[in-house]
Amino acid sequence: MAETIISTKDLHLYYGQNEALKGINLTLNEGEITALIGPSGCGKSTFLRCLNRMNDLIPNVTTTGSVLYKEQDIFGPKTDIVDLRKEIGMVFQQPNPFPFSVYENITYGLKLKGIKDKEQLDQIVEESLKAASVWDDVKDKLHASALNLSGGQQQRVCIARVLAVDPAIILLDEPTSALDPVSSGKIENTLLELKGKYTMVIVTHNMSQASRISDKTAFFLNGDLIEFNKTKNIFLEPQEKQTDDYISGRFG
Ligand SMILES: Nc1ncnc2c1ncn2[C@@H]1O[C@H](COP(=O)(O)OP(=O)(O)OP(=O)(O)O)[C@@H](O)[C@H]1O
């Protein structure tokens, strides 16, 4: 039986008066990839950002309900946000490496964690870049600016940066939508290789991407979670008419 790693209970989120999430109950299992799908504006990114309290950075946001990570409510007083975001890392739509070298991008979070030993840093840099399948591309330019890499390479460096601090969960908000098909394919392969070791949640508009890489799929519509099931079931035998309409392109 797969173990639950994070679950939301009656999660509501309001931007001012606008209710963007309307009571979401969702349980994610360790080591699985879950795809969040649904038309634009239905709350996928908002939900994703709840999982590591990224919405705290947005003014005028009210959240009710709970997000239990390893059985503790992340909105509770015991949560250290910096630690939480190391354990639950995030990769964004636009590759956003820091304007430093590749090496410094990867060691940034490690130095914040107090790791200073050069040998240890070198080792984690190599391991993280290898795990993100970008080592061969960058091993000869570790000290050149990450901004000089291609978009796809930058995105894989961003994944390596998240991996370096040893997260449990990786949140990915449309990580390939700004990339060409070859780079997107490389990211997908990277995610498949990381599956099992990390729990991943990916927002995607690309139905074939969701069906290729995810174990489970959650379909959102207007702030509601309409259907959540094994990806195969969602795509082959959706239980709800709205899911069927969406995946067969009748709206959205
Ligand atoms: N920072 C914000 N301030 C105010 N309203 C917001 C903010 N971010 C999102 N919203 C609103 O919340 C709702 C859900 O948006 P969200 O970005 O979560 O949807 P989405 O499903 O991820 O959309 P997309 O697929 O276009 O990225 C929308 O009505 C959106 O306008």
UniProtKB/TrEMBL annotation:
Alphabetical GO biological process terms: phosphate ion transmembrane transport
Signal peptide (from-to): none
Domain ABC transporter, residue spans: 6-247
PROSITE patterns assigned: ABC_TRANSPORTER_1 (PS00211), ABC_TRANSPORTER_2 (PS50893)
Keywords in alphabetical order: ATP-binding, Nucleotide-binding, Phosphate transport, Transport
InterPro entries per record: AAA+_ATPase, ABC_transporter-like_ATP-bd, ABC_transporter-like_CS, P-loop_NTPase, PstB-like
Record's protein name: Phosphate ABC transporter ATP-binding protein
Keyword Nucleotide-binding recorded: yes
Entry-linked Pfam families: ABC_tran
One CC-aspect GO term: membrane
PANTHER family given in the database record: ABC TRANSPORTER I FAMILY MEMBER 17 (PTHR43423)
